[in-house]
Amino acid sequence: MPRLSTVQSTPTSQAHIGPDTIVSDRELFLEVQMRNKNAVQELSRRYAPGLRAYLLRSNVSDEEADSVLEKIFNQVCCRASSFDPDWNNEVREWIYTTARNLCEILFPQAMKTERA
Questions:
Q1: CA dist., res. 19 & res. 41, Å (int)
Q2: CATH of region 4-115
Q3: 10 Å Cβ neighbour count for 63?
Q4: How far is the C-alpha of 93 from the C-alpha of 109, rounded, in Å?
């Protein structure tokens, strides 16, 4: 199985990152920052199930969850440059914070009941 070190030698647009590639979340997110579409897909594969469960626990309807997931990953990609791997400890924490902040804007009442 390829490691990121072999992936980094290829131009980002051609780098293959997928389920068969072993990379840390931090390395994967650095590829997301470089707009690697394969990295974005892999990030979604890793985090979408947990984020979906989080949304459902936060009283977001099943029908809305897919749309909200898309918005979360769009925001993660748009804000990827603000992630500083030297300052932020965990990619997971950063993604879930982004999700929570977006949900507080989209569903203020649902998020208030989650905290109660």
A1: 10
A2: 1.10.1740.10
A3: 7
A4: 23
Q: How many CB atoms lie within 10 A of CB 92?
A: 13
pTM of model > 0.85: no
The answer to whether the beta carbons of residues 58 and 111 sit under 8 Å apart is yes
Q: Which residue, 99, 90, 24, 106, is CA-closest to 54?
A: 99
* Identity of the residue numbered 68: V
In order along its 116 residues, the chain shows pLDDT tens digits of 334 333 333 333 335 565 666 788 888 888 888 988 888 899 999 999 999 999 999 888 888 999 999 999 999 888 888 887 776 568 899 899 999 999 999 888 765 555 55
Query: Residue 66 and residue 68: Cα distance in Å, rounded?
Result: 5
* Domain segments of the chain as ranges: 4-115
DSSP 81: G
